[in-house]
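Quick one: structure tokens for this chain, please?
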Amino acid sequence: MRAFALLLSLSMGKALACGYCVEDKIASTYDHASVTRAVGIGHHVVFFHLDGAVPQQDAARRALVAAAESVPGVDRGSVRVALDTFTLSLAFDPRRTSLAALQGALDARLASRKLSAFPLRVIERAGELKEAAARKQ
């Protein structure tokens, strides 16, 4: 009976991190130091789902980072990409750009790769994780 319980608990651990739910996507690009730094200077952190065929190559990851960092208002060095979960996160200055403008500029840069970015969640203050779709622009 103990062996069965052990096997069951081991298999449950794998099922808990599916990579498809919003929480797993956020966890795949979450960087506590980057979030703390951004929030400390009044910037926001947004987590995006990447829609489209994302090549599982380091060159694709570097290109996505470069595209995101080229958007006005994005904090350099804050972009994180997880190709396996199709997730991108970044910090930005809300005084320089809105989330809607940021998403539009990012989508324009990703269009040549046939990708688009869908915001999942936003962190505006320490300890806060908001649904991006529920936010009013």
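The longest helix spans residues 2-16.
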